[in-house]
Design brief:
Blueprint lengths: L1 H12 L3 H14 L4 H13 L3 H14 L4 H13 L3 H11 L3 H17 L3 H14 L1 H10 L32 H17 L4 H33 L1
């Protein structure tokens, strides 16, 4: 079973995500309550942009390990992609407990507050994010027009270029694949931010149809292979 997990990791490193999904699904038949297997299955689905399947895998992993904050952050971003704002807010509030994720979580919470037209809360959250990691967050704020209505209230340090942030001091806890998935989800959430609910539902429907079609093709190929062996 351990060799399947290691093989799945290798496939993820090689960006062979569909193959990794098959490996993790096989491994989960023997150990369905493995946090690592469920989480890595979620990662593979995420990189395939199958966010519905990723969410299911992540939620199973979260049931096993409630203190996996990177997992909560991923679930929050998926909720944003599907415009489930309250769920996203809840998960980001949990993810702030991980030091490496706290600045980004407060930053995302600030955007959610602006979507809800709560400017005071948005200002509080974005300034907290800047206090934690000014260089990263200020760069993000300047690129995102959502912050224009509160820009005058955002506390941007004057000595930003020379400031030594907490980010440079704190211990890194996220693995390379966790960082890659995090950045991918952030990018997808940004791409889908301006889509309507109807557009999002259409994406969900198209993904579900494609998955069903792929499963039928896989089943057909398995039957053909079995007939040849017989």
């Amino acid at each position: 079973m351990k060799h399947l997990f290691c093989f799945g990791d290798i496939l993820i490193d090689m960006e062979m995500y569909k193959e990794a999904v098959n490996v993790y699904q096989d491994a989960l038949k023997y150990n369905p309550y493995s946090y690592d297997l469920n989480y890595n299955l979620g990662i593979a689905y995420t990189m395939l942009n199958d966010f519905q399947s990723a969410k299911i895998a992540y939620e199973k992993a979260a049931d096993i390990n409630n203190l996996a904050y990177a997992l909560k952050y991923d679930l929050a971003e998926i909720a944003l992609i599907y415009k489930e704002i309250e769920e996203a807010e809840k998960k980001f509030l949990e993810a702030i407990n991980e030091e490496e994720l706290s600045a980004d979580s407060y930053y995302e919470l600030s955007k959610i507050a602006l979507i809800k037209n709560d400017k005071d809360t948005a200002i509080k959250y974005v300034n907290t994010a800047i206090d934690i990691d000014s260089k990263k967050i200020v760069a993000k704020v300047k690129k995102d027009p959502i912050f224009i209505p509160i820009m005058a209230k955002i506390s941007i340090p004057f000595n930003l270029e020379n400031r030594e942030d907490i980010e440079g001091k704190k211990e890194k806890v996220l693995s390379k694949k966790e960082i890659k998935v995090k950045e991918h989800l952030e990018e997808m959430a940004e791409i889908t931010r301006h889509l309507s609910y109807n557009d999002i539902n259409l994406l969900r429907k198209n993904r579900a149809n494609k998955k069903e079609k792929d499963e039928k093709i896989d089943t057909r190929d398995d039957l053909i292979q079995k007939e040849r062996q017989d």
